[in-house]
Amino acid sequence: MDLRLARHGETEWNVQKWIQGGTDIPLNENGVQQAGQLADRLLAEGFRPARVYASPMRRALDTARIVSDALQAECIPSPGLEEINFGLWEGLTWDQVQERYPADFRQWYGNRRYQRPPQGESYQDLLERMLPVLSEIVQREGGPDASCHVLVVAHSASVMSLLSWMHDTPFSEMVSRYRTQNGQTVMLDAQRFLPPFT
Q: For labelling, which of 19, 82, 105, 134 has a CA lying 20 to 30 Å from the CA of 91?
């Protein structure tokens, strides 16, 4: 199975560097273009999924719809793939978070895999809801050894969390090692999405 995870196209909050998290922000004009460019790249590579799975959030689902239309694939919203919820930090920049929530930020920064922002989720929470969904997708498409293409459109934290988990990388290094651009794809090892998840 050729399993790929794509980050959604750009939003205005990406441009302003505001924390989006669970806030449902649409693509901006550039984001729409990036989704089209993603579809063009996949077509040029001969990547032909029968279905494109996506986070139900608008920025991911609209990206997936643009790609699926171009690839003539079915687009399937998949609850559980939504971006991590950053709670009270959403709508702020990271500098503002450090100014307004210094103690909470220090705790989170030192143990971000398990520490939750105020009223938000940890990266472990994100993994625990995403992994069963990805497992279901892999099994629905015929299992890891199936000869098929599978595209999942999600979010930045999804990419960084999954790659950190897959490669046993400290979550403190996720941004420096696994940060992806809007509209970028990464390869996933479908074998890792068979339970039990370790």
A: 134
